[in-house]
From TrEMBL:
<feature type="domain" description="Peptidase M16 C-terminal">
    <location>
        <begin position="642"/>
        <end position="834"/>
    </location>
</feature>
<dbReference type="InterPro" id="IPR050361">
    <property type="entry name" value="MPP/UQCRC_Complex"/>
</dbReference>
<comment type="similarity">
    <text>Belongs to the peptidase M16 family.</text>
</comment>
<dbReference type="Pfam" id="PF05193">
    <property type="entry name" value="Peptidase_M16_C"/>
</dbReference>
<dbReference type="GO" id="GO:0046872">
    <property type="term" value="F:metal ion binding"/>
</dbReference>
<dbReference type="Pfam" id="PF00675">
    <property type="entry name" value="Peptidase_M16"/>
</dbReference>
<feature type="domain" description="Peptidase M16 N-terminal">
    <location>
        <begin position="57"/>
        <end position="202"/>
    </location>
</feature>
<protein>
    <submittedName>
        <fullName>Peptidase M16</fullName>
    </submittedName>
</protein>
<keyword id="KW-0732">Signal</keyword>
<feature type="domain" description="Peptidase M16 N-terminal">
    <location>
        <begin position="489"/>
        <end position="629"/>
    </location>
</feature>
<dbReference type="InterPro" id="IPR011765">
    <property type="entry name" value="Pept_M16_N"/>
</dbReference>
<feature type="domain" description="Peptidase M16 C-terminal">
    <location>
        <begin position="221"/>
        <end position="391"/>
    </location>
</feature>
<dbReference type="InterPro" id="IPR011249">
    <property type="entry name" value="Metalloenz_LuxS/M16"/>
</dbReference>
<dbReference type="InterPro" id="IPR007863">
    <property type="entry name" value="Peptidase_M16_C"/>
</dbReference>
<feature type="signal peptide">
    <location>
        <begin position="1"/>
        <end position="20"/>
    </location>
</feature>
Length: 957
């Protein structure tokens, strides 16, 4: 009897797609070793013993109380089905193993397990079948007894055999409805000539149909592979390892060893690229599968590990290609990669679903370009390290139960039946370099190793035969300047590095007839590819390092901002610097991102966000004929007409050094920082540092815009331009007034109390003196929304009806008028000042917000934000505040915006100054009832000629 006690760790493990092992583990005399992680990824005590009959047993004691997970991987899968006409039996016996034995017939053992609360399941793969059970530890001995008897004495009748064969046929037909399974079946059948990977675990359909008459062969198959030398037992949970081992020996020790070894055919080298089209009646959309022959499972060699890494780097959701095809251009609606866990060389797959037939070739070519890139580029070493780290720790996060640990072990044990393969795999993967990635790509990603499948409702795909060879793609495929931009260098010891490239330009710089070009340019830089890499490639590269790069667009500010861990900063910068300095300006990126912006306006704003729509229409109406007039993302007709040349022109004229303000914080390496600043000097020098913004148009009288759309409630916003901005001497006082009157998402604010709390009319009511978009999604305003012009605004969140909206608007106007007339009390002033003095640090509580607000302070030429606000607050008096109210707030010149489902009714109410009575479902104080009667007839006094009704479809047209 051979036995070993090893120190290993389940704390973390490398989650590479398709990890397994094939070499024999060595047997050792009983040994006790203390658990030490060292450089292992698997460092928890376990007992591993091989019985005399060849059965291997692994026991891991965990601290999860009571629960035990039993996994029984059997090293038999579709790979072992070598006889022609006899496929699908590994999967079939996964079913039959639930039929029971003479001692424990199906109904008997099923009743035992049910009453014991046992979760009893199984699955079959290419190389193994796994039976997994989870239960309370007091049932361990009985479960082991039952399973041992079934494994050794499986019993079933011919009727049961035939019936189960029909069930398997039904399962095949069910599975065959899945496009993914059909694609896998088709590609394996086409790609393999000799090897048993030619068929899936279900087997060929004609073999399944013949299965009911194969009972005699079924018995032979079972007796060949259900032998102890093919079986491992993994027990993880709240157990005593030695006592558990004795239980296993008691029930499984007498099982007799077999002697059968399947002769698995060797697949000959593929000589040329292959392609097949699958016709699928009624299939929506079109599917593409590009598959390359991969490596055998040899964990001590780099090939398999490198292919796993390539799969993630270039084709995962974080890849540049994914971002290009799915996110930016939206050519594809789905894309994913799969590298199967197999003992012998199998296939590395990339699946893509598109809506248009013509995009199949586009996507295929993009995938080939990506493989060509993998063959020619050296992946950034920091990015590669980040991926390895991400995979390792992501996997560790999943090992949060005895069942999760046991399931992971079962996936490895069936290969070498030795968990040390996990450490081997990790060590091999950890040693893979960027050069290894490129070398492996050049060995495996060749035209002769490729098999492509298309699938759709069409009999064939037009024009798909024109494919550029990888070799052709591969064949197709540095002096500092003086700086003229501002640098805010806040580098510190934080391991997180934030970079904010803030340009003093934005939607206010959009030329007439090209509204939206600023937003589209920013999107093309942050969410498009560079000249050397597609967006998909960039995203793929950013994923392992958890790096980010995105944009924010406003009237006078365009912010390109990113974050990365200091260890990966060089890799991150290599990617994003190319996006800014050498943007790809690809037509596909352009079309995808333009479509995205248009959809944002149509579906994101106009169709589904009444509150933001009302606020944006208010700005639009207050700034007619002004650079602020258009929505930040543009007008729909202008966006539709924009060309890629428009974007390039805006990029050249507006993204200049003169307009650039660089913000850096975190532990950015000094050499990398110097390189970054040198590189940014490549941008055009430019002359204009800031946009010239005129005063807001004069607003005379009261006006209203009513937006009609399909809506069950009515959203309200109203306001007027103000001269006070953050750099003004009275800004902090007015900011205090705003907080008292309607602090955003704060239940202590006055409007909130009067409309929401006392009357229960809506979700909230707020006031602003600075632009605050996305207010329904966040509690604190974003940085980098600096403006030379601002408005005072009241936002009433949707009301239940037009009557309620009319009443709530009257309440807000009534309270505003009272505030203007009476001012704030000493008590309210002191309470609000105390709140803001304590609250303001929360607005800059994160590193990136500190950087953003610091850049805003440069824009406004003020001190650091918290200091600026606190110093001003400390010097204020209630008399100062009430003077600021009188000088800044007024009621004569206001614009109201209502978003409603019945515009005619809302207009009639405003024109006729219709009474808007308030009704409650609970008793209210008489003082409130009396006030309501006064407010129900409070005059908004909007002249009929000043009331405009618009259909939502016409807004930002």
């Amino acid at each position: 009897m051979k036995f070993k006690l090893l120190a290993t760790s389940l704390a973390v493990s490398l989650a590479l797609a398709g990890c397994a092992a094939t070499s024999q583990s060595t047997q050792q005399a009983p040994t006790s070793v203390e658990a030490q992680a060292n450089n292992k990824v698997f460092a928890q005590d376990y007992v591993l013993e091989e019985l005399d009959n060849g059965l291997r047993v692994m026991v891991v004691k965990t601290d999860y109380p009571d629960v035990v997970s039993l996994q029984i991987p059997v090293s038999v899968g579709s790979r072992n089905e070598v006889e022609p006409g006899r496929t699908g039996f590994a999967h079939f016996f996964e079913h039959m193993m639930f039929k029971g034995s003479e001692k424990f017939p199906q109904d008997v053992y099923a009743d035992i397990l049910k009453n014991s609360g046992v979760d009893n399941r199984a699955y079959t793969t290419n190389d193994y079948t796994n039976y997994h059970l989870n239960f309370s530890k007091e049932h361990l001995d009985k479960v082991l007894e039952i399973k041992a008897d079934i494994f050794q004495n499986l019993s079933y009748s011919e009727s049961q055999f035939r019936t189960e064969a029909l069930t398997v046929k039904g399962e095949y037909l069910k599975n065959n409805a899945s496009p993914i399974r059909k694609l896998l079946s088709a590609v394996r059948k086409e790609a393999f000539d000799k090897h048993t990977y030619k068929h899936t675990t279900m087997g060929f359909f004609e073999d399944i149909e013949a299965m009911p008459d194969q009972m005699e062969y079924g018995q032979i198959f079972f007796e060949r592979f259900y032998k102890p030398e093919y079986v491992s037992i993994v027990i993880v949970g709240d157990v005593d390892p030695q006592k558990t081992m004795e239980m296993v020996k008691k029930h499984w020790g007498g099982w007799q060893r077999g002697n059968y070894v399947a002769d698995i055919p060797v697949e000959p080298k593929q000589q040329q690229a292959r392609y097949v089209h699958e016709h699928y009646d009624g299939l929506p959309g079109h599917w593409l599968l590009v598959s390359y022959k991969g490596a055998a499972w040899e964990p001590e060699k780099k090939d398999r590990a490198a292919l796993d890494l390539i799969s993630q780097l270039y084709f995962s959701e974080n890849s540049e290609l994914y971002q290009e095809l799915v996110v930016d251009k939206q050519i594809a609606s789905q894309m994913f990669t799969y590298n199967a866990e197999t003992k012998d060389p199998s296939l590395l797959h990339v699946f893509v679903k598109v809506n248009e037939e013509s995009d199949l070739a586009v996507v295929r070519d993009a995938i080939n370009r990506t493989y060509a890139t993998a063959r020619t580029e050296l992946v950034d070493s920091d990015k590669l390290a980040a991926l390895k780290s991400n995979l390792k720790y992501s996997f560790a996060n999943d090992l949060d139960s005895s069942q999760a640990i046991a399931s992971m072990l079962a996936q490895y044990m069936h290969f070498e039946r030795d968990p040390e393969v996990i450490n081997t795999l990790y060590a091999t993967s950890d040693s893979v370099t960027a050069e290894d990635i490129r070398d492996v790509a050049n060995r495996y990603f060749v035209d002769s190793g490729r098999t492509t499948v298309t699938m759709s409702d069409l009999p064939e795909v037009a024009g798909f035969d024109k494919e550029v060879a990888l070799d052709e793609l591969v064949a197709e495929l540095s002096e500092p300047k003086q700086r003229h931009f501002s640098v805010l260098d806040n580098t510190n010891a934080s391991p997180l590095v934030d970079v904010n490239l803030l340009f003093y330009t934005g939607a206010a710089a959009d030329p007439q007839g090209k509204k939206g070009v600023a937003a589209l340019t920013a999107a093309m830089i942050a969410n498009g590819g560079s000249q050397s890499k597609s967006y998909k490639e960039i995203q793929k590269a950013l994923y392992p390092i958890a790096g980010s790069f995105d944009y924010q667009i406003d009237k006078e500010m365009l912010s390109l901002r990113g974050r990365v861990h200091k260890d990966n900063a060089a890799q991150w910068y290599a990617l994003v610097s190319e996006q800014l300095l050498n943007p790809g300006f690809r037509e596909d990126d352009f079309k995808r991102l333009k479509k995205e912006l248009i959809d944002n306006i149509k579906a994101g704003l106009k169709a589904s966000n009444d509150e933001e729509l009302g606020k944006e229409v208010l700005y639009h109406k207050l700034y007619q004929g002004h650079p602020y007039e258009s929505y930040n993302l543009g007008d729909l007709s202008d966006l539709e007409a924009l060309t890629l040349d428009d974007v390039k022109a805006f990029y050249r004229s507006q993204l200049t050094q003169a307009k650039l303000n660089v913000g850096i914080t975190g532990a950015l390496d000094e050499q990398l920082k110097a390189r970054m600043l040198s590189d940014l000097a490549q941008l055009p020098k430019g002359e204009e540092a800031r946009l010239t913004i005129p005063d807001a148009p004069a607003l005379t009288g009261r006006h209203a815009t009513i937006i009609e759309k399909s809506a069950k409630s009515t959203a309200v916003s109203f306001g007027f331009p103000i001269d006070t901005i953050r750099s003004s001497k009275d800004w902090t006082a007015l900011w205090l007034v705003r907080s008292y009157f309607g602090e955003h998402r704060n239940s202590n604010a006055y409007l909130f109390q009067r409309i929401r709390q006392v009357r229960g009319m809506n979700y909230g009511d707020y006031a602003y003196i600075e632009y605050f978009p996305r207010g329904m999604f966040q509690t604190k305003p974003d940085a980098n929304l600096g403006r030379s012009e601002q408005i005072f605004q009241v936002w009433l969140r949707p009301l239940r009806s037009n009557n309620d909206a009319h009443f709530a608007t009257r309440v807000a106007q009534f309270e505003l008028d009272k505030l203007i007339k009476e001012g704030m009390t000493e008590g309210d002033f002191e309470a609000t000042r105390n709140f803001l003095s304590n609250f303001v640090p929360q607005m800059v509580a994160s590193q990136d917000r500190q950087l953003g607000y610091a850049l805003d302070s440069q824009f406004y030429n003020t001190d650091e934000f918290v200091t600026y606000v606190r110093d001003q607050l400390a010097s204020l008096s209630v008399e100062d505040v009430n003077r600021v109210i009188r000088e800044n707030l007024q009621s004569d010149n206001i614009h109201y915006v209502f978003v409603t489902g019945d515009a005619a009714d809302m207009k009639a109410r405003l024109v006729n100054q219709t009474e808007s009575p308030m009704h409650y479902n609970a008793e209210k104080p008489q003082a409130l009832i009396d006030e309501d009667k006064q407010i129900a007839n409070y005059k908004l006094a909007i002249p009929a000629a000043n009331i405009e009704v618009m259909n939502a479809a016409a807004v930002f047209k």
